[in-house]
């Protein structure tokens, strides 16, 4: 009888561990999405993989990389805009292409 209590205790600890990490929530959402599919398919495992695979782990490194990416996109857009302005300014001082070829 003590063996059953130990197994139940381990099972409960494991369930709490999965719940704490968000695994149970992700699996529940994946199964719910499978139930909501209009056509039942033979590739249920693929649907679960798709829904479970889209869950992003909460990792500080990923968050930092996302912030860095957003900053780089802003810098890129600013550089593109500055490039356009400088090209327009340069075009004011350069003679037209037709005059260059005539010389």
Supply the number of helical segments: 5
| Sheet/helix structural class | mainly alpha
**Roughly how much helix do the residues carry, as a percent range?**
over 70%
Distance between the termini: 103 Å
Coiled coil: 62-89
Organism: Octodon degus
GO molecular function, one term: transcription coactivator activity
Main location: nucleus
Provide a quick synopsis of the model.
The chain is mostly helical and about 100 residues long. It contains five helices and no strands. It folds into two domains: about 1-55, no CATH class; about 60-103.
Structure keywords:
103 residues; mainly alpha; 81% helix; 0% strand; coiled coil; AMY1; transcription coactivator activity; nucleus; c-Myc-binding protein-like
Set down the secondary structure blueprint.
Elements lengths: L1 H20 L1 H13 L8 H10 L6 H34 L3 H6 L1
Provide structural commentary.
This protein has two domains: 1-55, no CATH class; 59-103. 81% of the residues lie in helices and 0% in strands. It is built from five helices and no strands. It has helices spanning 2-21, 23-35, 44-53, 60-93, 97-102. Helix 2 crosses helix 3 (44-53).
